[in-house]
TrEMBL record:
Pfam families linked: Bestrophin
InterPro entries in the cross-refs: Bestrophin (IPR000615), Bestrophin-like (IPR021134)
Membrane topology label: Multi-pass membrane protein
Residues passing through the membrane, by range: 31-54
Location in or out of the cell: Cell membrane; Membrane
GO cellular component, one term: plasma membrane
Catalytically driven reaction(s): chloride(in) = chloride(out)
Name of the protein in question: Bestrophin
Coiled-coil region list: none
Phylogenetic classification of the source organism: Eukaryota, Metazoa, Chordata, Craniata, Vertebrata
Length: 142
């Protein structure tokens, strides 16, 4: 069923636009609000503990731990997948410029290769491809 919002968009004011976004059935806010609330609560809790409860030495230790985790966060999901890459693929991965973490690149690479294998007939039917992609998404969610 298609729902039109054109009359409401045309009459929306600048400050009333947020109400229109909340009415939208396919809104990204409705999709992500639970995760955002959990993130905001956890961030606030950690921030309050850091600012109010930790001593100076404990704050320095927390900062060192944060830097350590940040340094290795990019490598955690990728290191396993990099073992299956050829030398040329690894060079392409290493030279990829991105302002964001590159953990998603092997998943896109895998999906493209699986689709190519399906098109070439190496994966016999779409059910097998779907099963393969479901397993990849399950691994990715871990």
């Amino acid at each position: 069923m298609t729902v039109t919002y054109s009359s409401k968009v045309a009459n929306a004011t600048f400050f009333g636009f947020h109400r229109l976004l909340l009415k939208w059935r396919g809104s990204i806010y409705k999709l992500l609000y639970r995760e955002f609330i959990v993130f905001a609560v956890l961030y606030t809790a950690i921030s309050l503990v850091y600012r109010l409860l930790l001593t100076g030495v404990q704050k320095r230790y927390f900062e060192k731990l944060s830097i350590y985790c940040d340094r290795y966060a990019e490598q955690i999901p990728v290191t396993f997948v990099l073992g299956f890459m050829t030398t040329d693929e690894r060079k392409l991965f290493n030279h990829l410029k991105s302002p964001h973490l590159k953990y998603w690149v092997p998943f896109i690479w895998f999906g493209n290769l699986a689709t190519k294998a399906r098109n070439e007939g190496r994966i016999r039917d779409s059910v097998d491809l779907q099963s393969l992609m479901t397993e990849m998404n399950r691994y990715r969610s871990w």
